[in-house]
Amino acid sequence: MPLDADARALLDLLAGAGPTVVENLDPVTFREAFAGTALAGSHPDVLPTKEDCTIAGPGGDLVLRIYRPEVEGPLPTVVFAHGGGWVIGDLETHDAMCEHLASDTPAVVVAVDYRRAPEDRFPAAADDMLAAVTWAAEHAEELGGDRNRLAVAGDSAGGNLAAVTAVAARDAGGPAIAFQLLLYPVCDLTMAQPSYVENAEGFMLEAKVMEWFVAAYLGDEDPKNPGASPLFAEDLSGLPPALIITAEFDPLRDEGEAFAARLADAGVPTVLSRYDGTIHGFVSLDAMLASGRAGMAEAVASLQDALAG
User: Fold this and answer.
1) What is the pLDDT of residue 74?
2) From CA 225, how far away is CA 68, in angstroms rounded?
3) What is the pLDDT of residues 76-120, one digit of tens each?
4) Which of 122, 201, 299, 309 has the smallest count of CB within 10 Å of its CB?
């Protein structure tokens, strides 16, 4: 189907900034530019309280942001990894999304300020995510959460980190994860899926920028390493149920859908929800896109259903 009118309007607005020249990208200026996208996310009617804390992570201090809704607990606990190609994005760019997940579910949300590439390459971000999930499980009760209702969630590269963490936790014998919420996740770092050609440019995330992200994150690592590309994990059985949301006009569409198919084939209860007419990142752009508001509502409903007391 054609692009939604509001997605087309947003892309036309962004086109005024001119084409992305990958050769001119550097992590610091890219992070600064991406920080402005935080303004495109809506905030819930009732805001959760939030505070930052620091825990001991695999690479040193690891900052987490804890969101607590004004609801009596114990509540489900959701550990969230932000998107941004493992290079850009931070706690602020995804603050509004975490507010919605916390207030609307309601749940305690633990957002992870994981180490970013290229300063810290694979597997630094994945190691930080697993450490954060382990910490959240161990401290769930003092946070007002419930360790028996623990979910991992993330968008784009954050969806990648959530997915590989679910596999790593299964293989390590815990912590027990009850659900994985994966919004247009990166699942195949070979970038060989057909949607990379179909949606190579002009739809927010471009294939050439994704190639830059992958190079920054992986360095010389094999892109088929299942710790980076969960689509290549040998065994996906025994993983937590999943909702995978994809977008029609997204280079990452096919790998998310292939991962959903592999999960289902492995006996994992999996819901795949493709949003036609929209673009990568649409849920975090819910202040501007109707598809984003619908996607956020579906994400919240999936957490409610999966983590009911």
Assistant:
1) 96
2) 36
3) 999 999 999 999 999 999 999 999 999 999 999 999 999 999 999
4) 309
- In this prediction, residue 185 carries a pLDDT of 99
Q: Which of 103, 113, 156, 284 is catalytic?
A: 156
The span from the CA of 196 to the CA of 200, in Å, is 5
Which residues are within 8 A (CB) of 112 and not within 5 positions of it... i.e. 6 or more apart?
Answer: 62, 64, 79, 80, 81, 82, 128, 129, 132, 161
Residue 40: the pLDDT is: 81
For residue 111, list its beta bridge partners.
65, 80
Q: Are 238 and 169 in contact (CB under 8 A)?
A: no
Going by C-alpha positions, the residue among 161, 160, 182, 167 that lies closest to residue 234 is 167
Catalytic residue list contains 156: yes
**Number of domains observed in the structure of the chain:** 1
**For 124-243, where are the alpha helices, taking DSSP H only?**
124-138, 140-143, 157-172, 195-198, 207-218
Q: What is the CA radius of gyration of the chain?
A: 18
Count CB-CB contacts under 10 A for residue 291: 22
Scan for tokens 């954050």, then name that residue: 158
**Cα–Cα distances in angstroms (integers) from residue 151 to residues 67, 140, 207, in the given order:** 14, 12, 30
106 close to 180: Cβ distance less than 8 angstroms: no
Domain hosting residue 184, numbered range? 5-306
Q: Which one of 4, 127, 250, 286 is the catalytic residue?
A: 250
133: helix, strand or coil? helix
CATH of the domain at 74: 3.40.50.1820
- Of residues 158, 45, 164, the one with CA closest to residue 93: 158
The residue ranges of the chain whose pLDDT is under 50 are: none
Select which of 82, 188, 280, 302 is catalytic: 280
Residue with tokens 């990142």: 281
Per-residue pLDDT at 23: 76
Rounded to an integer, what distance in angstroms lies between the CA atom of residue 193 and that of residue 189?
Answer: 10
